[in-house]
């Protein structure tokens, strides 16, 4: 049996991997060897089935967290609370998604990807079941909060699995596909929940969600494999043992957990991740605000939508997310082909400029349409433009961050997820009162201005920082 790696070995490998920036890597094939244990050498069938399983669980991460956003009126009547109070049942779960991802990082690095992907999914399934059987708002909210804490793992584990299974040239495309699944989820989930709830009741809708979680869990058991691989750092555990983290890595557990706890804190405050993280926080705040509050407006004059109509409006969000995916897909290919001979990692960040303009225009369209009581088509178009900006921005920033820190894919993913969910959590508490105080038109106009200014002030310094870093490297 091989001798387990020490922490000193881990630090040396981490430093070496970080030093090998994406811009100097071989884009044709950066797999380390033809070792069959290397996930990059697996068959296309195994990779595809594993990736589909990852997408189903990622789709549920946010999609299941806001599943009840189209059912809050019925739940408020059931529990005899206000609609506004009923809507806050999701807020703590959204916040805990960020913390859950951070907590998962050391465990993923110490025990491997598969067990930390599987068992939180099992726990989340039972949390959804508990919410389904709840008889009061407090119990329901407790289970929903725990659902957010454990159910966020697929959003974190996706980047390291993509990093493990695919070559660097394939990363942007696979990130684009995977990222779109959990960004479409917040709109597709409530639509399906509303359709089911309209024909039955909210408990049946959550019962269906429990069954979907069961199906996703079964797919992980059947098609999930441990993807952690570093030459000499990976054992060959049995299939059963890999589910429980035995032999997935040869790293010492206690020191690895301590090391990665410290690394998470260090990377949160690394300048590029800090700046791009703040950009994500701002660009996710307002779209999530629309997602969690739009039903209140649609059921009120002048729209007076019923449950089916309000649920169908969610497909405007889905269309916007898919358009954002299309933009990110073509932009990533175009920018690399254009600068293939002089590639610089930060060029990925140019993918935020058009999306942010789209988001600003969408916020104005959405806010003014609602402010003046115009046709619902204006709401749909505004929402589409907002979601184009949201999805395309996270794709650009995620691709940059993974290329910048290829050896810290898990850590990077968790940090970006934390920034995203913090923005989504906060908006539910201050936006309703803000709208009452200042009116829809002014509020969404200010939001559009904040998005533009914040992204310019966070992304531009990253370009300047990267330029200064290269100049210093050349002088040295």
Automatic annotation (TrEMBL):
Region (Disordered): 1-40
Organism: Penicillium antarcticum
UniProt-recorded name of the protein: Major facilitator superfamily (MFS) profile domain-containing protein
Residue ranges, compositional bias (Basic and acidic residues): 1-14, 23-37
Domain of life: Eukaryota
Location(s), subcellular: Membrane
Membrane topology reported for the UniProt record: Multi-pass membrane protein
GO cellular component terms, A-Z: plasma membrane
Molecular-function GO terms, alphabetical: transmembrane transporter activity
């Amino acid at each position: 049996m091989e001798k387990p790696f020490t922490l000193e070995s881990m630090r040396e490998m981490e430093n070496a991997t970080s030093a090998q920036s994406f811009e100097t890597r071989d884009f044709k094939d950066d797999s380390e060897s033809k070792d069959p244990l290397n996930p990059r050498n697996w068959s296309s069938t195994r990779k595809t089935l594993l990736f589909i399983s990852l997408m189903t669980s990622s789709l549920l991460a946010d999609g299941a967290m806001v599943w009840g956003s189209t059912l809050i009126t019925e739940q408020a009547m059931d529990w005899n609370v206000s609609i506004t109070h009923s809507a806050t049942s999701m807020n703590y779960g959204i916040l805990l998604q960020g913390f859950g991802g951070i907590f998962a990082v050391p465990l993923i690095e110490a025990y491997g990807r598969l067990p930390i992907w599987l068992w939180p999914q099992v726990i989340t399934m039972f949390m959804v079941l508990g919410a389904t059987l709840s008889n009061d708002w407090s119990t329901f909210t407790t289970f929903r909060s725990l659902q957010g804490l454990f159910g966020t793992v697929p959003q974190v584990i996706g980047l390291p699995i993509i990093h493990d299974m695919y070559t660097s040239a394939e990363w942007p495309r696979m990130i684009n596909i995977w990222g779109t699944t959990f960004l479409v989820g917040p709109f597709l989930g409530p639509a399906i929940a509303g359709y089911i709830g309209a024909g039955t009741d909210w408990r049946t809708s959550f019962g269906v969600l429990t069954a979907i979680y069961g199906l996703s869990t079964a797919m992980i058991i059947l098609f999930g494999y441990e993807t952690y691989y570093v030459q000499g750092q990976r054992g060959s555990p049995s299939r059963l043992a890999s589910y429980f983290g035995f032999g997935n890595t040869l790293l010492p557990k206690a020191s690895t957990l301590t090391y990665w706890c410290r690394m998470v804190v260090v990377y949160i405050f690394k300048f590029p991740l800090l700046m791009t993280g703040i950009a994500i926080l701002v660009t996710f705040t307002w779209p999530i605000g629309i997602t969690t509050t739009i039903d209140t407006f649609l059921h009120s004059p002048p729209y007076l939508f019923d449950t089916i109509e309000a649920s169908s409006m969610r497909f405007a969000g889905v269309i916007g997310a898919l358009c954002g995916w299309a933009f990110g897909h073509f932009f990533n290919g175009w920018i690399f082909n254009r600068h293939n001979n002089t590639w610089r990692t930060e060029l990925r960040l140019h993918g935020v400029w058009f999306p942010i303009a789209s988001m600003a225009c969408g916020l104005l369209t959405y806010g003014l349409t609602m402010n003046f009581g115009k046709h619902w088509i204006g709401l749909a178009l505004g929402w589409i433009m907002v979601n184009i900006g949201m999805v395309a921005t996270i794709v650009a920033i995620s691709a940059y961050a993974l290329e910048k820190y290829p050896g810290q894919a898990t850590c990077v993913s968790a940090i970006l997820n934390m920034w995203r969910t913090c923005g989504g959590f906060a908006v539910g508490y201050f936006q309703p009162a803000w709208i009452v105080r200042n009116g829809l038109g002014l509020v969404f106009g200010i939001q559009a201005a904040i998005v533009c200014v914040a992204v310019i002030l966070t992304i531009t310094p990253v370009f300047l920082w990267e330029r200064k870093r290269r100049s210093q490297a050349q002088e040295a």
